[in-house]
UniProtKB/TrEMBL annotation:
The gene coding this protein: pheS
InterPro entries attached to this UniProt entry: aa-tRNA-synth_II, aa-tRNA-synth_II/BPL/LPL, Phe-tRNA-synth_IIc_asu, Phe-tRNA_ligase_II_N, Phe_tRNA_ligase_alpha1_bac, Phenylalanyl-tRNA_Synthase, tRNA-bd_arm
Record-given protein name: Phenylalanine--tRNA ligase alpha subunit
UniProt binding sites for Mg(2+): 260
Keywords on record: Aminoacyl-tRNA synthetase, ATP-binding, Cytoplasm, Ligase, Magnesium, Metal-binding, Nucleotide-binding, Protein biosynthesis
Length: 348
């Protein structure tokens, strides 16, 4: 091998070792490896040039190249171990935790007012002998309308009121389908005393008092000798338990396809105590739910002899009760998940 090749190899080695000593992090070390040991490096170019040498010179140059490459690779591995150890030490120092420091306080949440009201209502009716059942939110037209005595031409069938998924399937517009499902499951046995909390869906414009999705709590009682007075007594006991012993309820005639007779149920205004105010529009009463005696056709279609059995049903909105209970003026506040609003109920 000529002196020119020997001097050039020595120069490459010395320059590579000098630049390796200056590499201070993993990136610089990787750049050095590509520059010095890569295919496009000076060593790589010399390896390609060996093809034009005489066999003896090619052998000698190849041995020299391999020796220097091995030396540089060994130096690179040693330097890599040093840098990795240094970087690990720095990382551990940055991530060091002082275990003697006090921990951060975890902010406590609060039960949502709707959930709170649902639990309170469930507790009241369970104490009156009711059971809590649930049903599907995606319902069939058969249960949502037909078995509840709602004919095909009833306004509630209109697409502006109901979210239809197909001609047969829809998002339930009330929890009343569970009246029929419960009676079918009981197969003529009595007594039936259930409440059904759950979400319902209607094509309403959202405003301060309406929402396209809200929570309804259905109630159903079926047995022999059930009368309208039982309905009023049950609802009055519920109102007193929820709003105080001085509460009273009144029943006003109304119409629902699945109850006969039907009524709207009012309670004494929780704001003015019955003297008249803006909340009750000067009447002293506030409407809270709809109710009535289960329609004989609904009983018959559900497997109960309407000549022998009677029952009552009611449906109330949990949001409506929450707004009255906590003085909330806009139903949309219950769905915005604003922590400033929700924190107010932490100690309610």
């Amino acid at each position: 091998m000529s002196d020119t090749w020997r001097h050039e190899l020595e120069a490459i080695r010395e320059q590579a070792m000098a630049s390796l000593a200056l590499a201070s992090d993993s990136k610089a070390l990787n750049d050095w490896r590509v520059e010095v040991l890569g295919k496009k490096s000076a060593l790589g170019q010399m390896s390609k040039a060996m093809g034009g040498l005489a066999p003896e010179d090619r052998r000698v140059l190849g041995e020299a190249l391999n020796r220097i490459r091995q030396e540089l690779e060994q130096a690179w591995r040693s330097r890599q171990a040093e840098i990795e150890a240094k970087e690990k030490a720095l990382r551990l120092e940055r991530e060091r935790i002082d275990v003697t420091l006090p921990g951060r306080d975890v902010p406590l949440g609060a039960m949502h007012p709707i959930s709170r009201v649902i639990e309170e209502i469930e507790d009241i009716f369970v104490s009156l002998g009711f059971s809590v059942v649930e049903g599907p939110e995606v319902e069939t037209d058969h249960y949502n309308f037909e078995l509840l005595n709602i004919p095909k031409d009833h306004p509630a069938r209109d697409m502006q009121d109901t979210f239809y998924l197909t001609d047969e399937w829809l998002l339930r517009t009330h929890t009343s389908p569970m009246q029929v499902r419960t009676m079918e499951r009981m197969r003529g046995r009595t007594p039936i005393r259930v409440i059904v909390p759950g979400r319902v869906y209607r094509r309403d414009e959202d405003d301060a008092t309406h929402s396209h999705q809200f929570t309804q709590i259905e109630g159903l009682v079926v047995d022999e000798g059930i009368r309208m007075s039982d309905l009023k007594g049950t609802l009055e006991a519920f109102a007193k338990a929820l709003f105080g012993p001085s509460q009273r309820v009144r029943l006003r005639p109304s119409y629902f396809p699945f109850t006969e007779p039907s009524c709207e149920v009012d309670l004494v205004c929780v704001s003015c105590g019955g003297s008249g105010c803006r909340m009750c529009k000067g009447t002293g009463w506030i409407e809270i739910l709809g109710a009535g005696m289960v329609h004989p056709r609904v009983l018959d279609m559900s497997g109960y002899d309407s000549a022998r059995y009677t029952g009552f049903a009611f449906g109330l909105g949990a949001e409506r009760i929450a707004m009255l209970r906590y003085g909330i003026s806009d139903i949309r506040m219950l769905y915005q998940n604003d922590l400033r609003f929700l924190r107010q109920f932490r100690h309610a």
